[in-house]
Amino acid sequence: MSEQQVEPQVQLGPAAANLVRSIWRQRGLVLLGLMLGVVLGTLVLPKFFSSRSTYVATARMSVARFPEQGGVPTPAFPGEDTEGASTDILKDIEIASDVAKSVDKSGELTPVVLLSTLSFNPVAGTSVVEVSYPSSDTRLGAAVVKQYIDRLAAKRNQVDRKDVEQRIASLERLVDASSGPARIKAQESLGEAKVAELSLPLTRVDSAPAVVTTTGPPLSRQVTLVLALLLGLALGAGGALLVETAFPKVVTPSDAEDASELPLVATVRKNGVRRTPMPVVDRPFSPAAEDYRRVATALERQGLGTEIRVLAICSAEPGDGRTMLAANLAHSLARQGREVVLVSSDLRRPDVEKLLGLGQGPGLAEALQDDPIPAIAMLVSINDHLLVLPAGMPSKHPGELLASKRLHETVQTLRQMGIIILDTPPARHSADAITLSGVADATLFVAQSGATRMRSVHEATSGLRRDRIRQLGVVLVGTSSPLLRSLLASRGDFRDQHDAELEELEPPLPQPRAVQFGPRPPAPEPISGNGSGGADEERAGEIAEINATERNRRAAE
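Now predict its structure.
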């Protein structure tokens, strides 16, 4: 019997997480969509829903008539069954034509449509008739109702008064012409007619304005605003996904390899909650610091420090983590006892000085000018193994300074002092990155997860490749730590506490010293005897032992 094949269960968790991350990366568009929703909810949608609502304008009029035998006027539509043809006497095509011309100058409202839309509803047991007209425009509906009943009342009252006057005149002639009982009867009818004249007008219009109601109450402002915000959020999220689809970004290591066509050297995770641009210095036991040390180890395997003495750090766009990688890599190598010179070679927007807290001073630009200053004389000592050459203050265009032959001479001079790390400008914004990479032994490319566009990486690395510049690989920075790994850590809280204790035991790094001119000073002689130097050596030994134990424990895990 063949085994039954079971289809794998579809898991939407990772896909949903990627979808949320894609929207979050374009949160500016989402915010713009919410702002658009506020505008729609306060200005546009209320008017739209109001135009879609149907309003009914209703006004009242009193319609009475004389009995056939004369006497007190009675309601024109008595009885419970007041619907039907009896109210047709209130429909007048001439009045409808005048009202239509008065309220609608465009001519779209015809008398026939107006009459067919008007409704007359007598109130049972009274002479009151409610006249209603539905319309999407409240002012139009009220105007139609009031003008129609005013004109109708005036026309009916004119006809009624004329009839009464003619009847009185006829009875007066009859009284004059008759005698005896006939005269008495005519006089009685004349009296009733004069009493009826006092009851005019028979058709009266209620002076109150027309009452406007709606067949479907419009949405409140709160509900309209919520709907508009949801609509704006949907538009922003849709726009974000569209942008992410049209301009994909490097997110995973495979994306970095596909876009750059280079092997992945290592990944560097985010700094976590306690974010710092220099985790190697500020949080040496954090995952980000470990990743930077892993980058240094991988580069040493490829010849950094032996055949590769000058390394250029390149990226496609600003803010891709290029300067952070250069500074943390320089500190990692220096803490391993390597002699390192970090060169701030982005003369347009130098960031190394800001990152390390250095002030503005002479540097690479002064070494490349027409009357150069030796680069060695402008080095700033960060610690015993790390020197920094600032960018300086260019006296002319940075591209012209970097294109001079003094750049090669300066790099050759610094090459004798150890490993040279060049922090280059963004490769897609200027040709300076290619110029600096040309004097380096190799280039390391940097991309930031979720920020660097794949097209930018491809264009930048292809440009370096066309110029036959050696590229060691790509480093992906800003990756997210797996959540499962954090949840499965058996000693999560204790481990954080232990790392903090180790950071406290570690001796503080010396602050950058002032600019030193001339050759590098010799290292101080070790202090012997029973003074404080012995305590420092003993403390350093304890720290080294703790660090070794920690590395062994992490390797075992």
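Residues 80-85, 483-540 have pLDDT under 50 and may be disordered.
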